[in-house]
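Page 47, continued from p. 46.
Same chain as before, 288 aa.
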Amino acid sequence: MTPDEYCQDKAVQSGSSFYYSFLFLPPERRRAITALYAWCRELDDVADSQGDRGVARRKLNWWAQEVRDLYAGAPTHPVTRALQPFLAPFGIQRRQLMEVIDGMRMDLDDVRYLDFESLKLYCRRAAGVVGEMSAGIFGYSDAQTLVYADRLGLAFQLTNIIRDVGEDARMGRVYLPQQDLIRHGLSRQQFLSGRAGLEEQPAFRALMAEQAARARDAYREAFAALPEVDRNRQRPGLIMAAIYVALLDEIERSGYAVLNQRIALTPLRKFWLACRTRATGRPPRLVT
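Result:
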């Protein structure tokens, strides 16, 4: 199996919404974004493993060394070997890859977020910087597009946090800002203990509605920041946004039933959204 084939398999097996945005790219850009995505998945797998955190930290240290080897011209892993030809052409910088690793370390260190501002640092490392690298692969001419990409990464990560509240709690993680929990009369421990009936509480639904509104604000900021000159080239990001906004709408319609199930769109719906957005080239409509 070639490095490119390894990355392709990693992308397909993940079932991620991101895969659908890759389908319409030219071959070289598709290879580049698939390699970057596969690299991110490798790191996610380390951070999300249920094993010894000490082992996970050593694996992340290995990946940090692999990034240094990548920029020294001697990568060994299939995903870094696949990524290597695209570093210079698409401006992928070592500090950006290291920033993603720092975000994964925050997961292992059980970082707690006092307020939204502190959560934004995690979102920046986990998604915003990936958005910037992706924007470079898709192509841009106006530096303002990097602001759009960072904001869009924030919106994606906030949507992920809402979707994965229950799953994350079972892994001992609560990403919801502590100040938000307190304001709604809830506690971190209620999430970690899987308290029965929590989903039915008005306070829980109000809390999640607040998080959804914050995510929508981030989408609006992202779409407003995208320069018209780069809109066509950044269409893959808009495809991802269409899928993620539809997911957020589904979560809202469910009454935020996210503690004991994972709400997802069907592959057919994702593909339909991808085709529609590719045809129109416009951001998805956001409900108020």
